[in-house]
Each structure stands twice: as C-alpha cells, then as structure tokens.
C-alpha cells in the first residue's frame, strides 16, 4: 500500500488549505481501515487532525473540528483534507496515513508534504 500527499505548499492566511492523499495498492473502502490526516509543526510533535473511515464516516480533532473537513473520492481512491481560515500556526508537514481500526496502529504513511502559511 502506498499513500501520496499532494497540494499547494504555500497558502495565504485566512485561506483554505486543501490536500489530497492518493492511495494505491489497496482500496479506501476496505474494512476496517481508517484514513487519517496528521501534521507536525516545526519543532513540535505529531498532531492528529481527523480521519475518514472505510464506510465514509468522519471524526475530527476537537481543537480543529470547526475548521476541518475530510472527504473522499472512491472512484479515484483518494481522500482529501480541507482546513479553513488558516494562520501561520497551521504551518506544518502534513501526512496521510492508514490506521487499522479506530485504535489500531498506523501501518502505512505518506512521505509528508510541507505546507507553509504566509502572505
């Protein structure tokens, strides 16, 4: 299974950050995988953003919920992240990853993509 993030590397403050994760080698609708977005700001630890499940249900970090939307395109085996009203504090390396169930391990990760929020 391979995951690959794509999207703009530079976003202006107050705009919406949009990233897509393209999955190959496995279907995003296969039971019981959870497809997650995770980020790592510079000098800080990993921060979980949210996930979309094999059935299309979504769940978001409470701290980011009001600005986050995760969706999927099953025909292209992709899932996407939208984070609205970004500020420089949203600057981070963004990863997509597959999790085995809601509490299982993350078994596959994308390589990560740097997103910088700056005017």
Q: In short, what is this structure?
A:
A hairpin with a 4-residue loop joins strand 5 and strand 6. The strands form two sheets. Strands 2, 4, 5, 6, 9, 10 and 11 form a seven-stranded mixed sheet that branches. The chain has a four-stranded antiparallel sheet with strand order 1-3-8-7, with no helix packed on it.
Topology:
Layout: E1 2-6, E2 10-11, E3 17-24, E4 33-40, E5 47-53, E6 58-60, E7 68-73, E8 78-83, E9 92-100, E10 106-109, E11 113-117
Parallel strand pairs: 2-11
Antiparallel strand pairs: 1-3, 3-8, 4-5, 4-9, 5-6, 7-8, 9-10, 9-11
What does it look like?
There is one protein chain. The protein is built from no helices and 11 strands. It is mostly beta strands. Strands 2, 4, 5, 6, 9, 10 and 11 form a 7-stranded mixed β-sheet that branches. It has a 4-stranded antiparallel β-sheet with strand order 1-3-8-7, with no helix packed on it. It is globular, with a radius of gyration of 13 Å. The N and C termini lie far apart (36 Å).
* Global morphology: globular
Distance between the termini: 36 Å
Structural class: mainly beta
How large is the count of helical segments? 0
Rg is: 13 Å
Strand elements, count: 11
What integer is the average pLDDT? 97
| Run of helices and strands | EEEEEEEEEEE
Q: How large a portion of the residues is in β-strands, by DSSP E?
A: over 45%
* Biggest beta sheet summary: 7 strands, mixed
Uncertain ranges: none
Helix content: under 10%
